What does this fold into?
Amino acid sequence: MKTKSDIGVIGLAVMGENLILNMASKGFTVTAYNRSQQKVTNFIDGRAKGKTIRGAASLEALVNSLKTPRKIMLMVKAGQVVDSMIEQLVPLLDEGDIIIDGGNSQFEDSDRRTVQLEKLGMHYIGTGVSGGEEGALLGPSIMPGGSPNAWVEVKPIFQAISAKVEGDVPCCDWVGNGGAGHFVKMVHNGIEYGDMQLICEAYLVMRDMLGMSADEIQTVFADWNQTELSSYLIEITADILAYKEPDGSPLIDKILDTAGQKGTGKWTGVTALHLGTPLTLIGEAVFARCLSAIKDERVAASQIVEADFEPFIGDKEEIIGALKDALLASKIVSYAQGFALMRQASNEFDYQLNFGAIALMWRGGCIIRSVFLDNIKQAFDAQPTLDNLLQDAYFNSVVKQAQKGWRKVVATAALHGVSAPCMSSALSYFDGYRTANLPANLLQAQRDYFGAHTYERLDKPRGEFYHTNWTGRGGDTASTTYSI
It folds into this structure.
């Protein structure tokens, strides 16, 4: 083992332990620290035994064990715990040392911490890590951002431990300034919310509208995973549906239908509202989890609230084919909205995001990895200033081909009383996005009528605002024009 460690990691929960083991397996020497010393002892005497991993009994011992510039990665709970740990570390560190936050921190916190540490002559990296327990151990997708001068120091470690795709290309590259890394991870998680809900809606259509068993639905998902829908989430869905209880019954049928969430989907939606970017599908995915959480109320409502719909009597195979189209088209909208949000944030916060590189980082290791991320990378490589993926020739063509089935599923689900909020929202966004003249002219007239908020005219240059005395009782004074 080297005299000095290459990196230190604070936090020995599942992700922290597995990242340390990953680093050691790639030839790096790592110092592990946890507030509970017993955890350190158990780890060193257990999973870390015989590997290039040493334990530290204190933060001082951790810092002294590292070669300079020191690199310390925090794998602790986001929020105040990260700030507290930084506060304890700073007096022990020197100029040029690097603190890395590998948790799910809010990007605004990473913006603030980058400035804070750079003022002290130190560096900060806020990095998204995706892939769960298995990814952390075998190769996650890593999305670092923060102090650009720190990248050269951590690049060999991060790219070595990250997932690899064709040509041994690492699923890790520098994302951008300040909180860019955590912003991209936040959007990744928002898209993950959307993907998961879309899959659940496809499952619900097959289960409740078509009356299919878990085994029958499993076969469909397994088949879809051999097509352009191939992805990690489709793959694990097939595995989940195949899993049996000791009595041979499907476990999925016994799991309570209330979903949890840790907040990154909500953050994505709130940020989209702040930036004025339509992120309708991911918003619906978050609210679908909220609706699932009120289980007792839903059970009571199911006995009281009546709905008028007919049982399905059509061609099941036809609907399953259409469902595949609906899932694919809706998934494309989810990514289109996510990348549109990142574009807006990059401009707003000067993150200088490279969207092709982000798609590359998501091709392996992460939860939303799927085959069409290659197509997203190609789209942005060909046109770096692309406003929306729906304008790309490939995705435009795919959605055009899938559109008939997509509309059929959304309409049929509605007619037969099956909730499909994300597929419906995706279709509404698509139809709104492709509409040259939306009804906002009426909306703006209403605003001017009751609040003198003014409007622009089609027959006049943009930027000129007008007010009408609609009732004859108002005056000519208009409200100040502003936008959120």
Observations:
- The CA atoms of residues 63 and 268 lie 35 Å apart.
- The mean pLDDT is 94.
- The beta strands are 7-10, 30-33, 53-55, 71-74, 98-101, 123-130, 141-146, 164-165, 169-170, 176-177.
- The first helix runs from residue 14 to 25.
